[in-house]
Amino acid sequence: MKYLLLTLTLFFCVAFSALAQKKDKYAEMPGSEEVSEARVADLTRQMCNQLHLNEAQYIRLRAANRIKLARLDEIQWQYKDNAAQQHAKLAELEAQYEAECSRILTPSQLSMFRNQQQHDDVPRQPANNEGGLG
Question: Do residues 79 and 86 touch, judged by C-beta distance below 8 A?
């Protein structure tokens, strides 16, 4: 009985220390380790409305969006002090995401997706020199 009690005590000590170390790992990162389901749903729903996805495409794109948003948050946190490296990692992530979208979407949907991305990437010029110098 004495050995059983000693063994259980030792087991619980090891388990609690492992749990504490795991919590410390994520204490430095803002938010939780999971991506907000609302963000994933909003992004996927928006793409579904624009690209007229079928159900299978919606499910696969939702998974791809979840991975992209999680990785995006990770890159922004991990490389917050190094803008050049952060930009390079974000470009790499975007290329991977576009490759995944090309496997999910039809050619016409992919064309609409690329047109929408180009439209979103073009910076808007200020009207009447708003926000300019002078």
Answer: yes
Nearest Cα neighbor of 59 from 45, 73, 71, 70 is: 45
Q: Which amino acid is at 43?
A: L
The terminus-to-terminus CA distance of the chain in angstroms comes to 84
- Lookup result for tokens 């050995």: 3
Residue whose structure tokens are 């708003």: 130
pLDDT digits (tens, 9 = 90+) for 37-63: 899 999 999 999 999 999 999 999 999
Tell me the C-alpha distance between 29 and 73, whole Å. Answer: 10
The whole-angstrom separation of Cα 34 and Cα 24 is 16
CB count in 10 Å sphere of residue 84: 8
